[in-house]
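Supplementary Methods S3. Complex input for the iron/sulfur cluster-bound model.
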Amino acid sequence: MSTIAVEVVYRGIFQKTLARNIVRSIVFAARKEGKIGTAFGRYGDSPERNGIPAKQFAIVADTAEELEENLAVYEAHNVDVTINVDDTMSKGIESWAWYGLQPINQLTKPNGTLIVTSRQTADDLIEDMHQRDEPYNLSIIPSVPSFSGLWVYKDDHTDARILGTLCKVCPDLVSLASMLEAMKDQGWSDLKASSAEKAFERGTQRPVEPGEGSAETPFSFDLPGWKTMEEGLVIRSVPQGGGFRGGEEGFQPARSDVFKKYSTRSMRPVINFDTCTKCTLCWLQCPDTVFDVTPDGLYDANMEACCGCAVCEAVCPVPDCITMVSEAEFNDNNSQWEAWTKDKDGYNKWMTVLVDKAKLETRTHGFHHVGEYAEQGPQAEED
Ligand code: SF4
Ligand code: SF4
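Predicted complex, serialized as structure tokens:
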């Protein structure tokens, strides 16, 4: 066996413990087979704000020398398996320390596997993921995203199901038997072990051919070289004052030229402009200054800046005026207010479909989240 690398792409804070459980279990299982491995996080020392995409890795080798050799030159340019624990990151990720948009499959080796937890079909997911020149495989674990918090962990078996699937799609890494032993050693329950076994049995892969997927060119910009880097400055601060568009034009605050939050959120607000009373609460309370004031005094959430926290939905006093909708439903970041202004009937029909669908879906986090752990464990078993 040569060295095998696995990356877990997760949302900062919400899924930190989930990601850690996965990479540590891989290394523990590898040790059961006399292999050696290491698990580590990237950006662990940076401010992992809620929702910012981040990564943890597990590297497994036959010998310490082999592992050392690989780690000495190791920059995560390619991995055998990429694990994406929130399908809304399939459109690409902008993590804290990366500039621009990185396709979710960027590091996946040719003929490697991308595992995604999702309720979407393979075709829908592939539509979101950037095209590649090499083939790879897609393996889907039917699931809603497993979100929790910095110090708390939602034991809904997502980690066990991912590890079971991983043993199936990457048999050279570790056997299922070793993985189950490693789970037992960590005190995981028999029920979790059975979730891993079921996931192993059900694990399938769908080949993704070169050229399949989104043809979008990922957002990028010129990075400053070390000679041009300004002292103490990583991201230029947002200028004060904002971009006043004029009394007739409404108001748009200034925003960072380089730090966009397109992939930071897993949900976005959808606004019913017909019922908005212009009370200003969303504009005042949004922690990321997302709302542009429109020329007619309405509030338009600008998707360059929204982190998807759902504060606006919680503070809006008008029922259903702001509804958080899964990012998986959107293929652009265009202004909702402009769409509404151009075609009010069309916008309202589009909005109604999204809002009705959102109400039926299990909300994983945000201010309307009610602790659903008890319900989600058995549900995961059924999936
Ligand atoms: S979800 Fe709402 S409150 Fe939160 S950042 Fe986006 S617009 Fe602002
Ligand atoms: S909080 Fe609701 S009603 Fe108030 S301005 Fe925002 S969208 Fe309109």
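The longest helix spans residues 16-32. The two ends are 33 Å apart (CA to CA).
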